[in-house]
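[step 3/7] fold_predict: job queued, chain A
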Amino acid sequence: MLKTYCALAILAASAMPAETQKCVVDVYVRSDVLTPPGMLMAASDRMVEMFRAIGVEVRMMKSGASDVAAGDCHIPVRIIVTNAGRFGARPNTLAVALPFIRSGDRIRIFLDRFSNPSRTQMTAIFAYVLTHEIAHVIEGLEHHSLHGIMKANWDTVDYSAMRNRGLGFETPDVQLIQDGIECEIQRISAPRETKAALHSRDYLSP
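[step 4/7] structure written:
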């Protein structure tokens, strides 16, 4: 279900001339720990492919750089790759998303929690962790599904599917992601007074 402020923004925008607009997700990754050579790039490429498969454009950006013009719709997602001890993460937590904030690090990935799998498997898992957490930020929700990429706790069957690129988004998750994109488009295109009234990201229960 769309957020309360999105529903209002859509109403406000409906009085304006129809205009096709897309929203790009810009991902900025920094690391304060040593990552295996090539792993981050390969995992990022796979993550971009998974979002492209559901019609969402994701760009990997250099830290601090952006070529998005003022007024264009983009969702900035800043990620830090770090160790769990720095943030007191709960046991077995691979990563944490902060979907309700709009600046700073919105995702923390704990590299020391990956249990030293093989390089190929680590890249696959990292790609799915990236995809899962970025989806939370796009949705603006802490929602989880019973199956697929947005499952709260993956099991051995899921990890096996990751290696074969067989784990995907469930249909309701695709809709939530598309709703999040639409919400951001409406936030950008809404009149100034509507933006001021709808500044906070307040969601209805799904």
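[step 5/7] annotate
The helical segments are 4-14, 39-52, 119-139, 156-163, 171-189, 192-197.
Strands lie at 24-31, 58-61, 74-82, 95-97, 105-110.
exit 0
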